[in-house]
Write a structure and sequence with these properties.
107 residues, alpha+beta, two-stranded antiparallel ribbon, 3 helices, 33% helix, 16% strand, globular
């Protein structure tokens, strides 16, 4: 990565830094904690948006609340990507380490 400073750029008397990164994913992982049924927040909403983008969750269901529809869509993704082999398998419907890794590659 490369950090450069441009002294000619001054917006509202603040210093401006131009950060250039080869691969933003190498410094930032959007999914960094486990998620499961009942969870809520921004990370759940990001998960839902990704599931919608993958065609596994209906548009408009990015509520930030991890409910049964999100769980079902997540299980479908896990089955398609080989993270679980059946919907009743331990870890199905839960964002754990393997699913987090997958999700971070799909961002």
């Amino acid at each position: 990565s490369q950090l450069t400073f441009d002294p000619a750029f001054n917006s509202h008397a603040s210093l401006a830094f131009n950060l250039k990164f080869e691969s933003p994913k190498s410094i930032f992982a959007a999914f960094d904690k486990d998620l499961s049924l009942g969870d809520k927040g921004v990370a759940v909403q990001m998960l839902q948006k990704l599931l919608i983008k993958q065609g596994l969750l209906a548009k408009g269901l990015d509520t930030g609340m991890f409910g049964e529809k999100t769980e079902k869509a997540l299980i479908q993704l896990q089955l398609e990507k080989g993270i679980v082999s059946k919907a009743t398998q331990s870890g199905a419907g839960i964002v754990g380490p393997k699913t987090r890794n997958l999700l971070n590659t799909l961002i």
